[in-house]
From TrEMBL:
InterPro entries: FSCA_dom_sf (IPR034904), Nfu/NifU_N (IPR014824), Nfu/NifU_N_sf (IPR036498), NFU1-like (IPR035433), NIF_FeS_clus_asmbl_NifU_C (IPR001075). This is NifU family protein. It comes from Roseovarius aquimarinus. The lineage of its organism: Bacteria, Pseudomonadati, Pseudomonadota, Alphaproteobacteria, Rhodobacterales. Gene3D superfamilies: Fe-S cluster assembly (FSCA), Scaffold protein Nfu/NifU, N-terminal domain. Transmembrane segments: none annotated. Residues 3-89 form the Scaffold protein Nfu/NifU N-terminal domain. Belongs to the NifU family. SUPFAM superfamilies: Fe-S cluster assembly (FSCA) domain-like, Hypothetical protein SAV1430.
Length: 187
């Protein structure tokens, strides 16, 4: 098994490509080791000292390291944990389950607008940020303000504010006049 790595716009995050499907559908975000119980793979990766977050996409694993930790010191351990997991035959998610991820539900009078927002995110935004090892999901819509949740490499990325304001906000405002602003939400 050969695992490729790619840098991301977030210097604290690396993208690992195991050459096979990680999540057949959706994504899984583990912002801390306490959240990793649902995934044998995430648990193995968190066992490497210095790992602070793990994110799964269709064919990649994004790992975030702590401040003051060097990639040269932890990358071999992460590669070993990923290789060990896939060779063990264990599932990525325990009990065939999936981690909670994806768009938040929205009920109310703005349902049609929210549907348009989610459609644009799914077709234009999420594929692009997945290439950088992250994901951006809908969290809420209130009085013209769209709230988005940043995951994987996008969480804590220095360029995420620019991506939100210059990219996503402009895109949504162009296609949906009711949108006036885009803001990130915390975990």
């Amino acid at each position: 098994m050969f695992i490729q790595t790619e840098s991301t716009p977030n210097p604290a995050t690396l993208k690992f490509l195991p050459g096979q499907t990680v999540m057949p559908a959706g994504t899984a975000d583990f912002p801390s080791a306490e959240n990793a119980g649902a995934s044998p793979l995430a648990s193995r990766v968190f066992a490497v000292d210095g790992v602070t977050a793990v994110f799964f996409g269709n064919d990649f694993i994004t790992v975030t390291k702590g401040e003051g930790v060097e990639w040269d010191h932890i990358k071999p351990g992460i590669l070993g944990a990923i290789m060990e997991h896939f060779q063990s035959g264990q599932p990525v998610m325990a009990d065939g389950g999936t981690a909670p991820s994806g768009h938040s539900e929205h009920t109310g009078e703005d349902g049609e607008i929210v549907g348009q927002i989610k459609e644009l995110l799914d077709t234009r935004v999420r594929p692009a940020v997945a290439q950088d090892g992250g994901d951006i999901t809908f969290h809420g819509f209130d009085r013209g303000v769209v709230y988005l949740h940043m995951q994987g490499a996008c969480a804590g990325c220095p360029s995420s504010t620019i991506t939100l304001k210059m990219g996503i906000e402009n895109l949504l405002r162009h296609y949906i006049p009711e949108v006036t602003e885009v803001r990130p939400v915390g975990v």
